[in-house]
Every structure is written in C-alpha cells, then in structure tokens.
C-alpha cells in the first residue's frame, strides 16, 4: 500500500506559488556561469562524429554515424540557425544565456560548423570509405570503371534515371528555378555550339532513386557509384547539340521551422497546413558546394539565392552524406551484433505459453520496462491491444506525440473505438517535422470514431501518457502507463526509454484529471504522484534540489542525479550550483546540450557531467534525490529547457517500488563509473572522451552492459 502522505512530502501542492529562493543566494553566483547552448549542441554532434571515427566500431555502423551527423546538422540549421536569423531580421530578442550579440553567436556557429563539416568530410574520404573498400564494400568513382562497367551503367541510366531527370535552363526566358531545401543539385555551364553563348542549367538529383548505384562485379565484390556521378557523366544526353563546359554539385538548406500564431478562434489544423506549405519556401540559410566549384558559378548561386559568403560551405564531395543511410548491405560482420529485446518478466507467458493477462500482471504491482532492452511490443503495444479487445474496458485515453500512421498503437485505438469503447487521443500536431504525418493519422482516428483533441492553445503536449479504465466486479479501475518516450514501435527499437505501468488509484486519478483538463481547459496543478508542467514541474524540481542543499548544510547525506537530453534552463542550473556550493554531490547525465559548467571552484566543484552515445539513442529522463535516505525518484518526458518547463505539458511520475529504485540507481552507477566509456564535460565546455583505461583496454560500454544486466535479471527471476 502506498502512503500518499509520504509521497507528497516536500512538494506541497498548496504553497507552490509561495516557494521562492533567497535572493542573496543568487548574488553568490558569478555572472558568466553558462555555456553557449548552440555551441554545446555542435559539441554534441562532434561526439556523434567521434563515433564515426572510432576504429573499434563496426564499419557500417561508422558509416551510419556519418549519416546521423549529417541529418542532425541539417536540422540544426533548419531550426536553430534559422530561428536566430529570423529573430535578428524581425528585431526580436535572441534568447542567449551567455550575454553575447546575436551576430557574434551566428559567427561562432559558422566557424565551428565549417570546422565540423570539413572534419566530417575527411572522416568519410580518409577513414570510413577506404576501410569499407578494404572490407569489400567499395564506393567507386566513375573514372575508375572499365568499359564493361560503364556500358552496364549506361543501360541503367537510360532505363531508370534519364526518364525522371528535369534539366532547367536559366536564361532571359527562363528565370532562376526554385531550389528545394536539402535537395542535391548539379549546377551546369553549357555553351551553345551554334551561337557560342554560355548558359547555366540546374539539374536536381532525383531523391526517389537510390543514392548509391550498384555496380555489378564478376567476382562478387560490392561496388557502388554515387548517383550524381552517374548523372554528371552522361550530361551530353540531356543537352544534345550543346557543349558541357563544367558541372558542380550544390545543396541548399532553408529555414524549415514552423511558427504558428495560435488563436482560439481559428482552426489549428488549417493554420498549420498553411504554414507547412510556407515551410517549403523558407529563406536559404546554408549553401553547400563542392570544393572544385568555379567562382563564376558560385557568384551566380550567391546572387540568385541571396545568400552570404559566411553561409557558403565549400566541401570535398560527395555532398549530403545522409545518403549513407541507403547503404543497406547484408554484411553482419560489419554491423553491431543483433540484439533481440526480451519480454519484461511481469509480462512473460505462463507455463502453458499462453498469452499473458497484462492487466493481471499490473495488478500484482508496478511494472517498470526499459526499452529497447525490454520489448515495446510485448509491453506497451500488448497493453493497448488487450485494452482494445477486452469487453470489460470502457475507455482508453492516450497522448500521441510522434508515431507512424500504420502503427499498431493507432490501430489499437481504432479497434477500441469501433468496438464501442470511449477513446480519447490527444494528438500533438505541432511535433516538429512530423506535422503533416500527424494531421493525416489524426484524421484517420477521427473517421474511426476516436475523440481527437489537439491540446491547449499555446502549449505543446509532450507528455507520454496512456490510461485504461476497466470495470471489475462493478468497480472502475484505472491502469496507467507513463513513459519517457513516444508511442512509436519503430523508434522504440533504437531509443532508450523507461515506462511505468501501474494500477495505483492515485496515479489513475491524477491522469484522469490531467486528461480532462487537456481535452477541456486549464491545467490543474494539484497532483499527488505526478509533477506536471507548465505550472508546477519547475517549482517541484527546484524544491527537491533545494531540500538537498538544506540537508547538506545540516550535515546530512545529500545527492542529486539527473539524466536528460538537454540541460539548459538557468533556474535549474543555478539551483544545482547552489546545491553544489553547499556540498551536495551532483551527477548529470546528458545526451546533447549542456549549458552547465561543472568543476568550477567555488561554484560547481561537486558537479560531474557525463554523456553517453552508442548504438541506441539515450532518451530517458530520470530525476533522483537522496532525500535523507527516503529516495524521491521520477521518470518522465521533460528536459531541462525553457520550452519543456514553460511551454509544454510534461509529466513526471514518481517511482516507488524498491526493486525499481534499485534498478534506476544501478543504471546511474554504471553510467557514472570511471570504468565505463563516456564523455566528460570540463568547465571550459570541452568534452573529452574516456573509452580506454590506463591498461590500454576498452572501458565498459554502458549499453552493452545494460543488455547483459537485463538478461541476467531475467534469468535470476526465472530461477526463483
């Protein structure tokens, strides 16, 4: 039985608004105490690049990390750089926690991004590409092919490529064409053989075709030719009677951030659809060109695209290494060893291998699942599918932030609605870059009879919640799931996340009220086992951190552990600084951005910051407070950023089962251990990789060890 008086200790719903910190404590903190968030993000992407450079990792995985780096950087420009530029142009204040002028911030971003893109290109040309060739997977140039190879490729070009190419001339009768964002293009200079006049043409490399063309080999070796090389060596077929003088690849990045001015009187979906249409024509913010492009062509592109020299990135080819995602090669020896998620012990089939009763399992006690080490399909998906079919289930309520239209989660909600159950889906259609998909399957849900709502005006609904109401013996019982990750079966295989299932009545009441408020009006702040943004999550965390500070001053053991994707919020960081000054031991495990400076004497010498990257994307959020021996531990969806704490609906749930508390504690111990491979953040903002011990041996891989630990726990419980 859970004592809710104990759960509420230290949070105090009624007096949240009265909670404030002594202003004298703020004065004890130095002025320049934050790292620049944009440069910190670029440092995160450098850590991704370091994985691609790591010779101990399988080769195709290194190629995949190169593609991830490229995709990440695209999004950084489309959103963060675009947002900074938009604010400068419109005269809005640029949010920065380091007190620098916007132009200076953009200049620093440009310098660092140029450096990283050159390093990225070198990692491919000098490291990964040669190593792949040595392993029998060669990305070749057209010049290296013999006549037989070229003849075979010409047949492919004529049959599969030529028909979909669309060369666009630029002359007095043809204005400079629209260049779509992230498209790969060829800038071509040609001369009219009859008039001698030079002309310019643009040719888009078709994105629907494989980026790397298979070059058949008699000895069975794997060879691939970049599609743009195949096209550029057959330009004469596209411009008969013209002399092709020169050609160069280029690629444009546009502002693709969506800004919807929400008005309660307007249709949000229609406003968003209009904004998505505008996104395609956002202003250019980055021009990538091959390093051999001549000045005449570059000057034309700069003039026509209205872009500055600072926004030009001259790189060795090939451009757009996202194409490495397309290298889907059946070479298990060049990939990570496959890992098959295990089914959580609570949801294991019975002795007769019959399908488990998920609700009966949850009634026995809270269930904590850890994806992708433990299966999403046999836990979250099974929970919703059983709810859809169970005649005793009366209602299902769920938030959906990112999922796929063919998702079994969506199908389960549709099945439930068609079976006559009350089904509420709170769809966040403003989830960045998933807006169009979310609109499509939101309409699909509506057509099936699901009650679809879009949250509150001005707030994104980011929390990961599912609530099932079941009739049992004439009494309604709540079954709840609170997670750290999206209800997406595809990403659940590569995103590391936790999810808590519980039949606790208090959590059920909390979720019932929260869902009612999300589908209705204001957010209620009086929850018992949840911390909910935007009204009281920030203050709840500040109160818990400050309690650790006061315990340390009183000579009691005090510790704070936080695992997030991003640590940016100044109030949270300052609270951690004050706690460190009081002697609290603080450990921060962050995947991406971190504006906190650890290890600064007199301010943060008791703070350690670690980052772990690997085959899985670290995505869970954990908040752990020692609380004088009575641990207060939460998991949920919130990062320590302004948007999460102030402009989103987020939810953390308190974990109470002793076995679950130990599991989370052990997980943190492993990550923060000096014997585990990780990046360490220094006070100067530099991240240093620690993956080799003093004996020259590789340190423990946290994700590999977690796989082993989950399997070991399962075996141990099976023996019992």
UniProtKB/TrEMBL annotation:
Reaction catalyzed: [phosphate](n) + ATP = [phosphate](n+1) + ADP
InterPro entries per record: PLipase_D/transphosphatidylase (IPR001736), PP_kinase (IPR003414), PP_kinase_C_1 (IPR041108), PP_kinase_middle (IPR024953), PP_kinase_middle_dom_sf (IPR036830), PPK_C_dom2 (IPR025200), PPK_N_dom (IPR025198), PPK_N_dom_sf (IPR036832)
PTM comment, free text: An intermediate of this reaction is the autophosphorylated ppk in which a phosphate is covalently linked to a histidine residue through a N-P bond.
Keywords on record: ATP-binding, Kinase, Magnesium, Metal-binding, Nucleotide-binding, Phosphoprotein, Transferase
Residues annotated as the enzyme's active site: 462
Domain of life, source organism: Bacteria
Molecular function via GO: polyphosphate kinase activity
The keyword RNA-binding belongs to this UniProt entry's keyword annotation: no
Names of required cofactors: Mg(2+)
Pfam families: PP_kinase, PP_kinase_C, PP_kinase_C_1, PP_kinase_N
Domain PLD phosphodiesterase: residue ranges: 614-644
SUPFAM superfamilies cross-referenced by the UniProt entry: Phospholipase D/nuclease, PHP14-like, PPK N-terminal domain-like
Keyword Transferase: yes
Amino acids binding ATP: 72, 495, 591, 619
EC number: 2.7.4.1
Family listed: Belongs to the polyphosphate kinase 1 (PPK1) family.
Function: Catalyzes the reversible transfer of the terminal phosphate of ATP to form a long-chain polyphosphate (polyP).
Protein name from the UniProt record: Polyphosphate kinase
Originating species: Microbacterium insulae
Native organism taxonomy: Bacteria, Bacillati, Actinomycetota, Actinomycetes, Micrococcales
């Amino acid at each position: 039985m859970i004592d809710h008086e104990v759960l509420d200790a230290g949070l105090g719903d009624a007096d949240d608004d009265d909670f404030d910190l002594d202003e004298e404590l703020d004065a004890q903190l130095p002025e320049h105490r934050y790292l620049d968030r944009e440069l910190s993000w670029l440092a995160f992407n450098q850590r991704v690049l370091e994985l691609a450079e790591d010779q101990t990792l399988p080769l195709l995985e290194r190629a995949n990390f190169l593609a991830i780096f490229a995709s990440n950087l695209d999004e950084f420009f489309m959103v963060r750089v675009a947002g900074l530029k938009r604010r400068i142009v419109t005269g809005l204040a640029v949010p920065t926690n380091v007190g620098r002028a916007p132009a200076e911030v953009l200049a620093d971003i440009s310098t660092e991004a140029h450096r990283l893109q050159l390093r990225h290109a070198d990692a491919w040309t000098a490291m990964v590409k040669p190593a792949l060739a040595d392993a029998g997977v060669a990305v070749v140039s057209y010049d290296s092919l013999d006549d037989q190879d070229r003849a075979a490729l010409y047949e492919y070009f004529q049959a599969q490529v030529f028909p979909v190419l669309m060369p666009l001339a630029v002359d007095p009768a043809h204005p400079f064409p629209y260049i779509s964002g992230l498209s790969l293009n060829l800038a071509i200079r040609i001369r009219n053989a009859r008039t001698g006049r030079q002309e310019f043409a643009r040719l888009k490399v078709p994105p629907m075709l494989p980026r790397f063309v298979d070059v058949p080999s008699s000895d069975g070796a794997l060879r691939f030719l970049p599609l743009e090389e195949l096209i550029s060596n057959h330009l004469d077929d596209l411009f008969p009677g013209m002399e092709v003088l020169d050609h160069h690849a280029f690629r444009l990045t546009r502002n693709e951030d969506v800004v919807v001015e929400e008005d309660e009187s307007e249709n949000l979906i229609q406003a968003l659809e209009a904004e998505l249409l505008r996104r395609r024509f956002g202003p250019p913010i980055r021009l990538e060109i091959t390093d051999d492009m001549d000045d005449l062509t570059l000057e034309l592109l700069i003039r026509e695209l209205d872009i500055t020299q600072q926004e030009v990135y001259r790189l060795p080819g090939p451009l757009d290494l996202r194409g490495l995602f397309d290298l889907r090669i059946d070479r298990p020896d060049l990939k990570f060893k496959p890992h098959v998620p295990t089914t959580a012990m609570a949801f294991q089939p019975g002795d007769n291998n019959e399908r488990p009763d998920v609700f009966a399992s949850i009634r026995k006690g809270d269930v904590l699942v850890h994806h992708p080490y433990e299966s999403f399909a046999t836990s979250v998906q099974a929970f919703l599918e059983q709810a859809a079919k169970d005649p005793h289930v009366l209602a299902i309520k769920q938030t959906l932030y990112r999922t796929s239209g063919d998702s079994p989660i969506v199908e389960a909600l549709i099945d439930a609605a068609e079976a006559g159950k009350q089904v509420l889906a709170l769809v966040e259609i403003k989830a960045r870059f998933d807006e169009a998909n979310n609109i499509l399957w939101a309409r699909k849900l509506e057509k099936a009879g699901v009650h679809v709502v879009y949250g509150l005006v001005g707030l994104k609904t980011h929390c990961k919640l599912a609530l099932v109401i079941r009739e049992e013996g004439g009494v309604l019982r709540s079954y709840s799931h609170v997670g750290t990750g999206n209800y997406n079966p595809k990403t659940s295989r590569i995103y590391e996340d936790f999810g808590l299932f519980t039949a606790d009545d208090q959590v059920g009441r909390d979720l019932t009220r929260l869902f009612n408020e999300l589908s209705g009006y204001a957010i209620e702040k009086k929850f018992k086992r949840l911390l909910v943004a935007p009204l009281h999550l920030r203050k709840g965390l500040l109160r818990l951190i400050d309690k650790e500070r006061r315990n340390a001053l009183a000579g009691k053991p005090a510790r704070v552990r936080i695992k997030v994707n991003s640590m940016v919020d100044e109030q949270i960081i300052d609270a951690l600084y004050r706690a460190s000054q009081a002697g609290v031991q603080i450990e921060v495990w962050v995947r991406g951005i971190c504006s906190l400076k650890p290890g600064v004497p007199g301010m943060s010498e008791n703070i350690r910051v670690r980052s772990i990257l690997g085959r899985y994307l670290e995505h869970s959020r954990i908040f752990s407070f020692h609380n004088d021996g009575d641990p207060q531990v939460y998991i949920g969806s919130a990062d320590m950023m302004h948007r999460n704490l102030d402009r989103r609906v987020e939810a953390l749930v308190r974990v109470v089962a002793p076995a679950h508390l130990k599991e989370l504690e052990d997980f943190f111990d492993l990550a923060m251990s000096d014997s585990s491979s990780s990046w360490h953040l220094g006070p100067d903002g530099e991240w240093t990789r620690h993956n080799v011990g003093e004996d020259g041996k590789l340190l423990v891989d946290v994700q590999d060890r977690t796989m082993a630990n989950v399997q070991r726990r399962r075996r141990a419980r099976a023996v019992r």
